[in-house]
Amino acid sequence: MSARPTQSMINHDAGATPVSALAGVGPALAESLKRLGLERVQDLWFHLPLRYEDKTHVTALADLRPGERVQVEGVVEAVESGFRYRPQLKVAIGDNVGHTLLLRFFHFRRAQTEQLRPGTRLLCYGEVRMGAQGLEMVHPQYQRVTEDAPITVEERLSPIYPTTDGLGQKRLAGVIGKALALLPPSAELELIPPELCAEHGLSSLREALLYVHRPPADAHLGQLTLGRHPTQQRLAFEELLTQHLSLKRMRAAVRRRHAPVLGGDGQLRQRLRDGLPFQLTAAQQKVSGEVAADLVQPKPMLRLVQGDVGSGKTVVAALAALAALEAGRQVALMAPTELLAEQHLRNFRHWFEPLGIEVEWLAGKVQGKARQKALQRVADGAPIVIGTHALMQEGVSFTRLGLVIVDEQHRFGVHQRLALRDKGLEGEQVPHQLVLTATPIPRTLAMSAYADLDVSSIDELPPGRTPVQTIAISNGRRHEVIERIHVACREGRQVYWVCTLIEESEQLRAQAAEVAHAELSAALAGFRVGLIHGRMKPKEKQAVMDAFKAGELAVLVATTVIEVGVDVPNASLMVIENSERLGLAQLHQLRGRVGRGAIASNCVLLYQPPLGQLARERLQVMRETNDGFRIAEKDLELRGPGEVLGTRQTGQLSFRIADLEAARETCGAIDRALGRWRRPLCARLGARYRWLLREGLPCSMLTSRSKLAGLLPKSRIL
Ligand code: ADP
Ligand code: MG
To answer: Which residue is closest in CA terms to ligand 1's atom 13?
Structure first.
C-alpha cells in the first residue's frame, strides 16, 4: 500500500483547489460552474461528457443515411422561407453532382436568411432524417466556409457536457481542460487499492479520466455512446462503489433510531375495508400486512411500496394511515406535485369523511389566512394532512407525527424525505415512513438501489383493465404516424407526443420540443397543439395541463416531464419519439399515461433505424407486455444490474457485474479493503452527489442526465 497517498496529500492536493484558482475563471464563470455543482478542480475532473460528436471527418452527401449524426459539406442551392402556421426556413445544399440535403429551421433570425444565400459553402453537423421531401437535417449546427475560413476538422471526438444556460460547450471544455492539466500522477489519484483494480480489470483512474474527456479520433464512438468503453466502466465502478458505501452508512444511522408503536385495534381499518366498493387484491392484502407488521415495531419503518400504475397503492397507504390514527398519531402525506396531491386529497376525503376524520390540506396554493389556520390545526394535532413539499417548509410543525407517507419517491431526494421525518422528532423518536413508487424494479435490485428502504411489491392489477396496444414504427414512416394522429384527433381522442432527445441543456431540450411542436402544428391543421417542457414556469405548465385535461388541446407535445402522475383519461394515443434511446422502465412509465380511461389505447414507439440489438429487444418487450414487473425483470436480464442501477438515458451503460449478490460481495470486500480510504473516496464525489441531489438528478455521474431517476438511489454522503 506504500504507493498510496497519505491523508494529508489528499486534503491538500490539486483536486481540492477552488475552480476560481484556474486561469481565466473569473467570478461570472465561477458562478455558472457553481450552478453545475462544479466548485473544486476535482468536480471538473468528474464532470463527464454526456455524449460525443464526431467532427473528425466530413461525410459526402452521397453517403448519408437516416439516423446518423454527421458532418457534411455543401453549397446552398435554394432558400425558401415560408410561413405555414409557423415560420420555417428551408435551405437546400448540394454537392454539384446531384446529391442534396435539406436543412430545416423553425427558429431563425433575419440575418440567417441573408447569410445563407445560394452559392454559400457550408459545413454542417446534425442528425440526418428522412423527411417528406427526402433527407434532411433539422436545426443543424453550421458554419460558412470561405477562403479566409477553410474547412478544418477536429483531431479528437468532441465531448458534449451537461451545461447550463449561458455557458457554452467550448468554454466549459476549456475550463475542464485546465483542470485536467492538474491531474496528479496515478499513485496520488488512486483511492481504490491497486490489488482490487487488478482483480476487477480496472484501468487507472487517471487514464480513464483523460480518455473520456478527450477520446482520440479513432475511438469507438458507438462504444463510448453506449457507455461501454473500459474507461467509462472504470468510472462507473468508482461511482457505484462510493454510492454503495454512502448508502450503507446512511442505512445504519437510520436503523439506530426509535419510533412509536402503532398498534391500534384495527376498527377504522375494518370500517374502511367494509365501505370500499371493491375487494382488495391478494397483492394489496399481502403488502398491507407487511406494512402493519412494521408499524407495531418500536423502530422506524422505512418501506418502499412499489406497484405499477393503477395497481392500487393509494388504498394501501390509506390503511397504513388509519393504523397510525387508531394509535392516536398524526399522519402526513406528501406528493411531488400539486396535481398528485389534490388527487390524494380527493381520495382520502372520500374515504375518511364517512369515518368522521377530517383531512387537512397544505400546498403552495394555500396562502394567507387559510394557510395560518391550516398550520394551526396541524400544530394542534389534526389527524392527517396532505400536501406537496410545502409540508416540509418552515412554520409547519406537528405534535404527534407517527407516519409519513411519500408518493412517487424518485421525485424527492432522500434528504427531502429525511427533512419531513425530522419534523416528527420527539426526543429519540422518529416517525415511520412509507414510500410509494410506480416505477417497479425487481425486488433484489430494489433492495440494493434503495439501500435505506425495505421493499414491498403490489405485483397484481385489480381485475378488468384493458392493456395498451403498442407498435413500433420507423421514423421513416413519421408522416404516416402524423396522419394517424390526425385521424385520432378527428375522432375526438387526445394525443401525447413525447420528445426524448438527449440534449445537454434544458434549453436545448426545450428547443427540440418546440421544433416538434412547430412540425405538428403545421401538419395538424384545425387542431390545437400544446407544448410543455421543463423550462416553463410551474404556472404555465399547470395552465397547459389544465387545457389538455379540459380537452381544449388535441395534442400535447411534451418532454419527459409528463412521466409521473399525469392523469387525462381521454388521452388514448401516445407517440414516443426516439424510443430506441430510452430504457424499458422509462418507456413503461411514459406509456402508463394512456390506457387510463374506458377507450382502448395505443402507443406508437417511433424509432430511428438502424436499431441495435438491445434496442430491438426492448421495443419487442414493450410490444409484448404491459406488466411493469415483467418489464423490470426483462430490463434486468437485458442490461444486468450494474446497468439498471447506473443507467444513462439510453439505458445502456454497461457495468456488468454477474449478479447482485456478487456485486454486494464485491462492494463488501472493497469496503473492508478500503479501510481508512473509505472517507476520502466518499468525500471526493461528495460535492458532485450533493449537487445531483439538489437538482433532483440521479446519483450517477455517468448518468447525470438520466431520466430513469426512479431506478437510482438518492444517496446522501455522510
Ligand atoms: P396507483 O397504484 O397507480 O396509485 P390507485 O391507488 O390510484 O393506483 O388506484 C387506481 C384505481 O383502482 C383507483 O380508482 C382505485 O380506487 C382502484 N382500485 C384500487 N384497488 C382496487 C381493487 N382491489 N379492485 C378494484 N379497483 C381498485
Ligand atoms: Mg398513485
So the answer is: 312
Q: pLDDT tens digit string along 108-141?
A: 888 888 889 999 999 999 988 887 788 999 889 9
Please state the atom number of ligand 1 nearest to the C-alpha of residue 279.
23
Question: What number does the ligand 1 atom closest to the CA of 314 have?
Answer: 6
The best mutation among 314, 407, 411, 591 to test binding of ligand 1, ranked by most ligand atoms within 8 Å of the C-beta, falls on 314
Q: Which ligand is the nearest neighbour of the Cα of 592?
A: 1
Ligand found nearest the CA of 314: 1
Pocket of ligand 1 contains residue 657 by CB under 6 Å: no
C-alpha 314 – ligand 1 centre gap (Å): 7
Ligand 2 centroid to Cα of residue 309, in Å, is 7
Q: pLDDT by residue (tens digit) across 389-440?
A: 788 776 788 888 999 998 875 555 555 555 666 666 666 688 898 988 876 6
Torsion of CA 308, 309, 314, 320, to 10 degrees: 20
Distance, CA of 155 to CA of 57 (rounded, Å): 9
- SS3 labels along 397-444: CCCCEEEEEEECHHHCCHHHHHHHHHHCCECCECCEEEEEECCCCCHH
Atom of ligand 1 nearest to the CA of 464: 25
pLDDT for the residue numbered 123: 95
What predicted TM-score, i.e. pTM, was given to this entire model? 0.63
Please choose, from the candidates 640, 620, 276, 651, the residue with its C-alpha nearest in 3D space to the C-alpha of residue 471.
620
Sign (positive or negative) of CA dihedral 619, 620, 623, 626 = negative
Cell reading at 633: 425483470
Q: Indicate if ligand 1 lies below 6 Å from the C-beta of 311.
A: yes
**Is residue 450 scored above 90 in pLDDT?**
no
Q: Which residues pair with 104 in a beta bridge?
A: 90, 138
**Pocket mutation for ligand 1, best pick of 305, 315, 346, 589 (most atoms within 8 Å of C-beta):** 315
**Atom 24 of ligand 1, residue of closest alpha carbon:** 462
Mean pLDDT rounded to a whole number for the chain: 80
Ligand nearest to the CA of 460: 1
State the distance from the centre of ligand 1 to the C-alpha of 311, rounded, in angstroms. 6
Q: What is the dihedral of CA 40, 42, 47, 49, to 10 degrees?
A: 140
* Grid cell listed for 575: 407517440
Looking from the CA of 711 toward its CB, the CA atoms found within 13 Å total: 30
313 lines ligand 1 (CB under 6 A): yes
pLDDT at position 698 is 36
**Which residue's CA is the closest to the ligand 1 atom numbered 23?**
280
Please work out whether the CB of residue 309 comes within 6 Å of at least one atom of ligand 1: yes
Pocket flag, ligand 1, residue 446 (CB < 6 Å): no
In whole angstroms, what is the distance from residue 333 CA to residue 101 CA? 55
- Grid cell in block for residue 90: 428551408
Domains contained in the chain, CATH given? 7-50+161-251+656-716 (no CATH), 57-145 (2.40.50.140), 257-458 (3.40.50.300), 469-625 (3.40.50.300)
Least confident of 86-100, 113-127, 429-443, 447-461: 447-461
Confidence of residue 665 (pLDDT cuts 50, 70, 90): low
Q: Please indicate whether residue 1 or residue 460 has the higher confidence score (pLDDT).
A: 460
> C-alpha cell of 704?
447525470
* 3-state percent breakdown (helix, strand, coil) of the chain, nearest 5: 45, 20, 35
Q: Does the beta carbon of 315 lie inside 6 Å of ligand 1?
A: yes
